[in-house]
User: Fold this.
Amino acid sequence: MSEVKKFQTETARLLDLMINSIYTNQEIFMRELISNASDAIDKYHYLSLTSDNLPRRNDYEIHLVPNKDQRTLTITDNGIGMTYDELNDNLGVIAKSGSLEFLKKMEEEKAQGKENIEIIGQFGVGFYSAFMVSKKVVVETKSPLSEKAYEFSSTGQETYEIKEIDKTTTGTSITLYLKDNTEDNNYDKYLEEYMIRSLIKKYSDYIRYPITMYVTREEPKYDEKGQIVEGEYESIRTLETLNSMIPIWKRNKNEIKDEELHNFYMQKFYDYQPPLFHLMFTIEGDINYNALLFIPKVAPYDLNTINYERGLQLYTKGVFIMDKCKDLIPDYLRFVKGLVDSSDLSLNISREMLQQNKVLGKMAKNIEKKIISKLETLMKDDYDLYLEFFKLYGTHLKYGAYENFGARQEQLQDLLVFSSVNNEKPISFDTYVKNMKEGQKSIYYISASTIEEVQTMPQMDVYKKHGFDVLVLTEEIDEFALKQLRKYKDFEFKSINQVSTDELLEKEELEKLETIKEEKKDFLQALKYALDGLVKDVVISKRLTDSPVCLVSGDGISFEMEKVLGKLHKDSDIKADRILEINPNHELFKAIEKVYETNKDDLKDYAMLLYNQSLLMEGFKIENPVAFSDLMVKMMVRSVK
Ligand code: ADP
Assistant:
């Protein structure tokens, strides 16, 4: 039996990229193939512990054979192997979901003159990296779940061939037929002992199964009496293990260099940059485990998509159980990568049972606490690094603070930072409160895209006058969130667009404004009438000092929320109340009042102009731009008559 099949289009494109356009860092093919071999052994081991049909074994091994005569490198493992279907699905016809994304990412990077082939593993297409250095790849494999063994072979050109073979041992053997050497590229180096050794040391040292290879060593020659023969040596071939096999998380924290941790992270979690920071801790007592956690410096490309799978790798007594155990980490910390190794879980625990496992639940709570306290420390000790972190993952923390209640919420809300008009760097609620001016009773905020935008808002007049700080909320969820939190310590959150400003004014000032309100009652009423159906009210402003008008919303939903809801539901008719505030001390007020007194018929035109102007300042669209522009023309013409 032998059949030739076509690669799925995206896979073919991916292979083409591997073969024809990547020349830097080709050596990572070794890491990818060793990592696959190690995963395959993990899977075998796990299965042998959880099912009765598979023999348990203790001779796990990844074996390398470089063959200089044939220019081949073979990587053999005695792991789980692949059935006929798996071979097709994993290496052949089925397009891997990551293929297209990887292609896109590589194209983007190439356009920027970069070439981060190292990230390939992140996309689940690492196997294909073999084609960077091979003109042909042959995979021989036997799964314990299948009677028969199969061979997959391909030159990476559109098709691959699958046939049945005689192979009785369980596992997989991958043979790379190295590309021909070119002037720039010597592929023979991958057959050299020193090269293989150094690649294993660099990328795969921590792999927990022995990576073995026959090496030739020159040893001193002994004569019959057991004496060394001076100057003579003999070549001895011995099987050597190339990796140290000690998992890094089991080593003494103080003896590990940051560089080692970073390398480990980059290899294990497919990043091309060291992490932003890491946490390593051992818990002993009620429950026992080691944890090694990393915060990536660049957020995973799919972090905010539903395809993203959060979770930590789970080991028990050094044995790998599962890759992304999501029960170990709450959703709002989904960006954390790392692993946990516990001695309290039984080896043959099933995945379903894991979910209800009490030990796991305790570990998860504990891990969450550790991360929060690490963030608290960071905030105190290295604020700039914390801000860098928050820029990347702050949104997630915000969700965490909003979704949780009680003690957790209090802790999380202290980790939030926001931009503010009085500060160069974002600040926490705590800092805001500490810097409050005498007599200030609330925490003020406004939604906007930049601080500069806020600075020019008419609503800011009164806050500027008092020197009160105002938080600038730049994310859509922020305002909903503050509404949900309601207050911080004893201070309510108040939008400068909604709140009554009475608490900001001196008693006399307030009384003066009340009097004006009384006196101008009819005028205001007339304006309101002129804007019938457009505004809920027209009032004397208590917040404007320099600007003529502003539009504020009532106590219910705010303009920002209206905009967000409008984006979410195209035909949402939920609208914030519009209240037009005018500044009685402004020239414009007096001018329009004059119109009201002398020429009532024109009042509507002025009112419309004012209203539309305030809409624009609030970032709304003018409801009828043509009418508005006609009106402007009419007024301009009138003003020079
Ligand atoms: P990933 O390993 O990230 O899933 P790869 O392209 O490296 O992506 O491998 C694809 C799949 O092929 C693996 O998920 C695994 O199921 C299978 N595979 C690869 N190498 C081996 C191997 N040595 N033994 C068994 N299965 C393997």
Q: What stands out?
A: Residues 32, 36-37, 40, 77, 79-82, 90-91, 121, 124-127, 172 surround adenosine-5'-diphosphate (CB under 6 Å). The two ends are 96 Å apart (CA to CA).
